[in-house]
Structure formats: C-alpha cells, structure tokens
Automatic annotation (TrEMBL):
Protein name listed in UniProt: Carotenoid cleavage dioxygenase 4
GO molecular function list: carotenoid dioxygenase activity; metal ion binding
Iron found in the keyword field: yes
Keyword Mitochondrion (UniProt): no
Cofactor(s) needed: Fe(2+)
Binding site for Fe cation: 294, 343, 411, 590
Family: Belongs to the carotenoid oxygenase family.
Length: 602
C-alpha cells in the first residue's frame, strides 16, 4: 500500500444510525450516526503502551520516569489497547444516553449535527499514528527547520451519537519532526483526565460543553445523568473535564497542550518523534481551574503572560509566569462586569490588552435549559470594550477601559507601544457578525484591523488593512509585543475551511490594502493556521520576514495531506518544500514550531 492510498478517506451517508468505536485496524468502517467514515491506517501498527498519566504540579523536570527506555516509542497509549469490556453501570448509563440522543433531543441544528460538523476533512482520524516516515515530493526541507511543527485540533475519541460541536473533540496533536532534511509524522491524543477516564471506561462519560444544552427535556436528562455518573464514581470533575484541543505553547522550557476550559497539559516529543503526555499542570498548586489557550511569551524577557475567564466574578483574572516558570499572583479584574468570551489577548512591552466583546457566557442557567444552545451566546445590547492594564500591575487600579462599538475579536495578532508612550497599536481580526461564531461559521467574516488606542485622550481609531476574510494569523514570534511589520493570515473561504494564506505589511498606509503576498492552495485543497519560522532564529540582524511559512494542507480530491514550507519573503510565497504525509491530518486549530534546541530541553 503506498502512502497515498493508505490515507484514503470516504465520507458518505447511510440510513441507519449506529455507533462503532475507533479500533486499531488496517481497515476500518465506522458510522457517525448516519455518516460513514472509511479509513485505512498505514502499514505501521501503533505501538503498545501504558496509557496512564498522572497530574503533575509543574516546574521544569524531565519526565524520564514516564519513558520506556527499552523502546522510546512505547510510552503512550493506543486507544485500542486498554479497552475493557463495558461494565454493567457503564452499559446502563450508555443506554440512558442513547435514549436521550434518540428520543429526547430535538432535531439537530447543523452546528451540532455530527454529519455536518465531521464532514470532509473535519472527520476524526480513527486511531493514533506512531512516528512514520514522510516522503518529500517537492524541493528540500531547509536546515533551519530542524525541529518539529506540532498542531492541535479536535479528534473525538468516540464517534458522537448525539449533538456534537466542532469545539467538543478530544485534543489530538499532529507533529512533523524534521531532522537533517527528513521528516516523520506522529499523531497522538493528549492524554487528558477526560481521555483516560473514557478510554478506561470504554465509552463517553463526560458531557459535551458546547453541544450538551439542547432544550429543556434533553438538558435536564443530561444534567441528571451527569450527576448520577459523578455520584457513581465514574469520574471526579475536580480533575478537570478539559479537552486540551486548542493550541500549544512553549515556555519555561516546557511544552503544553492547551484548552481554555482546563489547566495546561505538559507534553513532550521523544528523540524518535513520538508524542508523550506528561500530565496536567497546576504550577505547584498556584494555577487554579483554567488558563487561556493563547498565553503570550515575551521574546526578550522570557516571561509568559496569561489569564483565565469564567462565569462568576471576577470574570477575568490576569497573571504571569516569570522566566523560570514560577507563576506569579493573580490579578482579578472586577471591572469586567459581564462574562465575556475571552479567548485571546495581546501584550506590549508595558501593557496587556483585553477585549470584552458581545459574545459571552449566558448568565441565566435557565435560559440554557429552556432555550437550549451553547453556554456561550451573543448580547447585542452590550458595547464592546478594550481594557488596557500595565502588565506588571499588582491590581486592577490602573486598568483603563475604552468603548469600541462594533469591535468583536476572538483572536489578537499583535500589539505594541507607540514611541510617544501614550498610545498602543493593536492588530486583530474583527468579526463582523459575531452572532454567527458558534452557530453559523459559514457566515463569519473577519476583517483584520489596525487599532490605535490613545491612552491619554481615550480616542480609539480603527482601519481595516484587508477586505479578505482573515483569521488564524501570526507574526514572527521574535516580534510578539513589539512593533511588527508582517502578518501571515489564513484566508477563510468557504468558512470554516482555509483556502490560502496572505502576507500583510501593516506599515502601508492606513487606507491601503496591506496584502503584499498570497498563495492559494488550489481547487479542493484547504489548509490550516500558518506559522512563521525564522531562517536564522535569534539573529538580531535578520530581517523580520526572513524565514518560512509552514502549514498542513489537505487535498480533498486526492484524499492526501501535505506539509508545506513557503518562502516568507517571496512575493508568491513560493513553496520551497512539500512533504506528503503518510496519513490524513484533519483540519484543526492552532500549532507552533519548536526548534531542535528546545525539543532537547523537554
Ligand atoms: Fe484560538
């Protein structure tokens, strides 16, 4: 079987609902309710492993005790290896859940209909992939790419029987390890507490946060079932129910898989390119409940800034880690008066910048029960605000808020202090119809804006810098928090698929389209978030755009995934290397590149 046919993938529909579990097999046929997914695994079998992970209380220590030295590829579980027979209680709970899915749930909305959500290359891969050699089909991998590009994304361990939102899937990491011009691909679940409990149980146990509220009868039934599961000891929510499916971050010589509903999970890459989950990190007991999936590390000081948000005051809590990875004290922000959906933020050398937007957590739990839908909803009567706080503030007394009508951002790209010291520039994609974010992603259009905030006068000026629908944007990581010129952004078309990448030059005039380079992936080909890798990292003389733009791209016609390396300085974003991946990589969320010298610290 060659590497193309080994990743073949079919999604069709059948009339009979059913569920089969992912299984390790050379040829699998599974159903998502009425959606059928067929996938052939590569010839290499997943390695045997222990599948057990434990909670850890951070700082830097090497996870050697979790590593099997006889075989560096045997430290991570394969889902198929540990599945016990379902016990009586689990069978009973699963039957009740099936009754809710089949007889109580109202007809599925497209946003939570698995047949819709998991169509095309959004469908999960059916098992993990151990490190597997890749074929370079164009050009050559440059020496400065020695390291690993790792991308996170949702990949449900169990094919959903009921409502399922794109954000509800278990986190899976897809790592392409590059060394001396050769590459291997490895795909592993993040072994979260949720993953391990459900893997051991042999069935889904924890409720889906984004799709679990589905009208009065179904919400009440699921609530009761969840309570019974906890009382019966199936799981303990104090250990977190997070998915770690959103992003990765490297700071304090540790690599983390992140999801904002839980604590970070420390992970590492072995020398053979395999992915190991080390454990859930509470940073010596100092980090409570959750942390953003978009922390920001200052490239000069090595400090990392982060926050958490929640449904009860303080709705925002700001904090940082020093360069040694020690978490500093919380700064609760009570001046945020309603629970905004705070997914991302920005830093400058002096400030942290938050956006309070119209998308927020629904305060009245009875609305969730009676109206159904996600726990996150839109408040059209609220005026969006930008909040600026000194990044070393001990409390919120110096925080300033600026009303910015119509400014609803999910992601921030970068920010910096202007030379006068009295103003800040923020670059971010503004979502024009925020109400569609969760229910109708196909209608979402985001305009990247350059926003100038005068901290003295309170005047905020805004200029869109491109008319395209752009998000999942990055800058050269060495320029986080300081004036940057270039942005690499994904083109959403048709949403939520990504048809290409653009390079923007924000130094162009405020009323000009700032696009300076573009690459479309071609008919039927869709990519993911781009990431910038410097050709000569750490060289202060290097030009900001001297490097490569990398991403995964999937060809839906050929059923083949590739890793692309593009020349960031080229006007065409010329492809300098294309790697055929041994298996499909589903569309996902955020990733990063970790250079070889940093991988060796893990
Ligand atoms: Fe994000």
């Amino acid at each position: 079987m060659d590497s193309v046919s080994s990743s073949s993938f079919i999604s069709t529909f059948s009339p009979k609902p059913s569920l089969l579990r992912h299984r390790s097999s050379s040829h699998l046929l599974l159903r998502i309710n009425s959606a059928v997914i067929e996938e052939r695994s590569p010839a290499t079998n997943p390695s045997e492993n222990n599948g057990r992970r434990r909670q850890t209380t951070l700082p830097p220590r090497k996870p050697k005790k979790l590593h099997n030295h006889r075989n560096p590829h045997t430290a991570i579980s394969s889902p198929a290896k540990l599945r016990p027979e379902m016990n009586l209680a689990t069978a009973l709970f699963t039957t009740v859940e099936n009754v809710i899915n089949t007889f109580i749930d109202p007809p599925s909305r497209p946003s939570v209909d698995p047949k819709h959500v998991l169509s095309d290359n959004f469908a999960p891969v059916l098992d993990e992939l151990p490190p597997t050699d890749c074929e370079i089909i164009h050009g050559a991998l440059p020496p400065s790419l020695d390291g690993a590009y790792i991308r996170n994304g949702p990949n449900p361990q169990f094919l959903p029987r009921g409502p399922y939102h794109l954000f509800d899937g278990d986190g899976m990491l897809h790592a392409i390890r590059i060394r001396r011009g050769k590459a291997t691909l490895c795909s592993r679940y993040v072994k979260t507490y949720k993953y391990n409990v459900e893997n051991k149980t042999g069935a889904p146990v924890m409720p889906n946060v984004f799709s679990g509220f589905n009208g009065v009868p179904a919400s009440m039934a699921r609530g009761a079932l969840t309570a019974v599961r906890v009382l019966a000891g199936q799981y303990n929510p104090i250990n977190g129910i997070g998915l770690a499916n959103t992003s990765l971050a490297f700071f304090c010589n540790r690599l983390f898989a992140l999801g904002e509903s839980d604590l970070p999970y420390a992970v590492r890459l072995t020398s053979g390119g395999d992915i190991e989950t080390i454990g859930r990190c509470d940073f010596d007991g100092k980090l409570a409940m959750s942390m953003t999936a978009h922390p920001k590390t200052d490239p000069e000081t090595g400090e990392t800034f982060a926050f958490r948000y929640g449904p009860v005051p303080p709705f925002l809590t700001f904090f940082r880690f020093d360069s040694a990875g020690r978490k500093q004290r919380d700064v609760p922000v009570f001046s945020m008066t309603s629970p905004s959906f705070l997914h991302d933020f920005a830093i400058t050398k002096r400030h942290a910048i938050f956006a309070e937007i119209q998308l927020g957590m629904r305060m009245n739990p009875m609305d969730l029960v009676f109206e159904g839908g996600s726990p996150v909803g839109t408040d059209n009567g609220k005026t969006p605000r930008i909040g600026v706080i000194p990044r070393y503030a001990g409390d919120e007394s110096e925080m300033k808020w600026f009303e910015v009508p119509g400014f609803n951002i999910i992601h921030a790209i970068n920010a910096w202090d202007e030379d006068d010291g009295d103003s800040i520039v923020l670059i971010a994609p503004n979502i024009m119809s925020i109400e569609h974010t969760l229910e109708r992603m196909d209608l979402v259009h985001a305009l990247v804006e350059k926003v100038k905030i005068d901290l003295v006068t309170g005047i905020v000026t805004r200029h869109p810098i491109s008319a395209r629908n752009l998000d999942f944007a990055v800058v050269n990581p060495d320029f986080v928090g300081r004036r940057s010129r270039y942005i690499y952004a994904a083109i959403g078309d048709p949403m939520p698929k990504i048809s290409g990448v653009v390079k923007l030059d924000v130094s162009k005039g405020d009323r000009d389209d700032c696009t300076v380079a573009r690459r479309m992936y071609g008919t039927g080909c869709y990519g993911g978030e781009p990431f910038f890798v410097a050709r000569d990292p750490g060289n202060p003389e290097a030009e900001e755009d001297d490097g490569y733009v990398v991403t995964y791209v999937h060809d839906e016609v050929a059923g083949e995934s590739r890793f692309l390396v593009m020349d960031a300085k080229s006007p065409e974003l010329e492809i300098v290397a294309a790697v055929r991946l041994p298996r499909r990589v589903p569309y996902g969320f955020h990733g990063l590149f970790v250079k070889e010298s940093d991988l060796s610290k893990l």
